[in-house]
Amino acid sequence: MKKGTLTNFKGGKYVGEIKNNKPNGQGTHAFTADIRIFPAQSLSKAGDKYVGEFKNGSYYGQGTLSFANGDTYVGQWKSYNMNGQGTWTNTYGDKYVGEFKDGSYCGQGTLTYSDDETEKYVWKFKDGKYWSQDFLANNNGSKYVGEFKDGKYNGQGTCTWANGDKYVGQWKKSKQNGQGTYTGSDMRKYVGEFKDDKYNGQGTYIGADGARYVGQFKKGEFNGQGTLKDFDGEIEKGIWKNGELVK
Q1: Domain tally for the chain?
Q2: Which of 47, 161, 188, 211 could form a disulfide with 165 if both were Cys (CB 3.0 to 4.6 A apart)?
Q3: Domain boundary residue among 51, 68, 84?
Q4: pLDDT, tens only, 54-85
């Protein structure tokens, strides 16, 4: 296959292997003007450069796209789009390693942030959006394993904190919502309903001293009908308000 140069190729210059007057094989496409190759694609900027494989004039196979702003993509291509396995790194050092489809994150991938609050995610993506997640760990020692939706804890999941506390149950918009179990490192335990990270609804609370309350909760306090059995066996039963027995 012969090598050559196409000086007016899709907003830039192509140097590499050519067949039928089109890029085919290994080559370099350097953009000298802003251009949108296809309507659905983002705008390519002057200074962007692709080095890799071509097929019938399109990026096809393995290649590297270096953006003028410092971002890079290294991976698989099909019809000018990131398709298949690849790695995207931006100028801040954030990195996504995983599957792409038509230029967007799609499928299984790992997204790592490089700022002071470093977090590592193993996500599932759909149409470039966070769809669900299997794992999250961050530098404060907490770890989440479970379901996500649109970048938030959503569905069933388990969170373990650095101090040993653990929650297993349902989440909505990154807060404990629904049925769950919270176990403290000091052996406190609550089993029941949650709302916005607080005990809310029907539940059972066991204190570190062995005291047990079974009944209704609101905003994390005994509220409503309930029974408290102290560690020494004394029983208090009736209506509670903000943690106090009122009748």
Answers
A1: 3
A2: 161
A3: 84
A4: 999 999 999 999 999 999 999 999 988 899 99
Residues 75 and 102 in one domain: no
| CA separation for the pair 30, 51 (Å, rounded) | 8
What's the domain range around 125? 92-179
Global pTM?
0.55
For 30-39, 93-102, 118-127, 220-229, which range has the lowest pLDDT when averaged over its residues?
118-127
- What whole-number distance in Å separates Cα of residue 214 and Cα of residue 205? 7
- Mean pLDDT calculated for residue range 143-172: 83
For the chain, how are helix, strand and coil distributed in percent, rounded to 5? Answer: 0, 70, 30
Question: Domain end: 153, 179, 205, which one?
Answer: 179
Bridge-based pairing state of the strands 143-149 and 198-206: unpaired
Task: Tell whether 5 and 70 lie within a shared domain.
Answer: yes
Contact criterion met (CB below 8 Å) for 133 and 145: no
| C-alpha to C-alpha distances, 58 to 26, 90, 220, nearest whole angstrom | 11, 24, 60
Q: Got the DSSP string for 33-86?
A: S-B-SSTTSPPB-TT-EEEEEEETTEEEEEEEEE-TTS-EEEEEEETTEEEEEE
d(CA 152, CA 154) in angstroms, rounded, equals 6
Do 191 and 244 fall into the same domain? yes
Is the pLDDT at 228 greater than 90, yes or no? yes
